[in-house]
Write a structure and sequence with these properties.
It is built from 15 helices and no strands. The chain is mainly α.
């Protein structure tokens, strides 16, 4: 393609030898160019040596058009596979099959509608963020003024209502005047002093003390609000009355319900969340993010399984601690550090003769002592066992999964024998 043809703006001007139609350049034509013009004027195929007539509306015959189409298809597939522009074959593709330069030849807008929509949404989000930041900064400066002593009671009340310190939303002069039961001009005068103080505190920035304007309603939103105020259906230009308690008429409500059911079934087949349609389902028809809006994000079956798992883990830890306690008791009894009644009470209390321990009262009934006396006899033994079990657990769990206090939780192998951890020492739980 010559430099002259590449600078033309539209696609029609890109045809070969289109610039040769003028008479001024006829004297500069080459032999093959003059032959092209003669064959085109005669209605013949412009391909060299082809005797067939050209197809109506084209410069080549059907056979040569078919061969051109095949070559173009092969070039299209080759460039698309390489990720290059299908038109120039030099630059990478941009949001389609053409590059950002070649898109200007075929489209009115360089950016596609999806990109323009995303960019518009980003700009709107940035504006909204700036508005929110300005509101927060303005309310912060107003609170600084309210904490000082430079404003009177009326001025402070007007400023507090104006910035929405009580409910978080800004108010107009009319709303403040109605709440204070004064005129709008009086509110303006009261806030003038606050504005003066504001300028003193913010001499560098010179920020005006006025509510930041919220985002204006679009034309569609205004039309919708007007139709709703008149009691009409809020869908498009529907002239029917809205159904009681709804914003649409009966016909559009049925259509919306039908579309919602179809969308729900389609998302179920795709195994997506029936509400957002973006994330996969989690233990039902909703995703884990949409389930957080409910009272319990986890379903009942999941909560029951988790509760059983925790109970099993607690039981396993309790059994582990109890085995450590039995081993420490055996080592303590074989070392002869505990003798007589204390050794017998310790053996019965830990339950070396069976699989479960006993309470102080049960041990006292077997050896003929009171529960309080059994507790006094076991105080030295309990202190020694506490150190032994702690060291043993520290060696056994090098990763630190168990806390030292875990070893001293009463074993809950049989509920009728061992009470909860909150029970008092009168029941005689081990290591309590």
């Amino acid at each position: 393609m010559s430099p002259r043809t590449s600078s033309l703006p539209n696609r029609k001007a890109m045809a070969p030898f289109r610039h040769l139609a003028s008479d001024d350049s006829a004297t500069e034509l080459k032999t093959h160019q003059r032959q092209y013009l003669r064959r085109k004027a005669a209605g013949k195929c412009t391909a060299t040596g082809c005797p067939n007539d050209a197809k109506p509306g084209h410069t080549k015959c059907r056979a040569h058009l078919a061969s051109l189409s095949q070559r173009h298809k092969k070039r299209y597939v080759s460039r698309s596979g390489q990720g290059l522009c299908i038109y120039c074959g030099e630059r990478p593709q941009f949001w389609g099959v053409r590059c950002v330069i070649c898109r200007q030849r075929f489209f009115k807008e360089v950016l596609p509608s999806a990109a323009r929509k995303a960019l518009h949404g980003y700009v709107e989000a940035e504006k909204k963020r700036d508005i929110e930041h300005a509101q927060v900064e303005a309310r912060f400066q107003a609170r600084k003024l309210l904490l000082g002593d430079r404003l009177t009671a009326v001025q402070a009340q007007a400023l507090r209502l104006f910035v929405g310190d009580d409910n978080g939303s800004w108010r107009t002069y009319d709303e403040v005047a109605r709440l204070m039961r004064v005129s709008k001009q009086r509110v303006h005068q009261a806030l003038s002093a606050s504005r003066a103080e504001w300028d003193i505190d913010n001499a560098r920035s010179k920020r005006p003390l006025k509510p930041v304007a919220s985002q204006r309603a679009t034309r569609q939103q205004k039309v919708y609000r007007k139709r709703r105020a008149e009691g009409l259906c809020g869908y498009g230009r529907c002239a029917k009355q809205a159904a009681p308690g709804h914003a649409q008429c009966e016909e559009h409500l049925q259509k919306m319900l039908k579309r919602a059911v179809e969308r729900r079934e389609e998302r179920k087949q795709q195994k997506l969340c029936v509400e957002c349609g973006k994330l996969p389902q989690f233990w039902g028809n909703r995703c884990i993010m949409c389930r957080t809006e409910h009272k319990n994000p986890l379903p009942y079956a999941a909560r029951r399984a988790l509760r059983r798992y925790r109970q099993a883990e607690a039981k396993r830890e309790a059994e582990k601690c109890y085995h450590q306690l039995r081993a420490a008791t055996v080592r303590l009894l074989t070392s002869n550090e505990v003798k007589g009644k204390s050794a017998e009470a310790l053996r019965l209390w830990v339950g070396l003769d069976r699989k479960t321990g006993r309470s102080y009262r049960q041990v006292g009934a077997l050896i003929g002592l009171s529960g309080e006396r059994v507790r006094q006899l076991l105080v030295p033994s309990r202190l020694i066992l506490k150190s032994l079990v702690s060291n043993s657990l520290a060696r056994h769990d090098a990763g630190g999964r168990l806390k030292p206090s875990t070893a001293f939780v009463p074993v809950q192998i049989k509920p009728e024998r061992w009470k909860s951890a909150s029970s008092s020492h009168k029941n005689g739980n081990p290591l309590m």
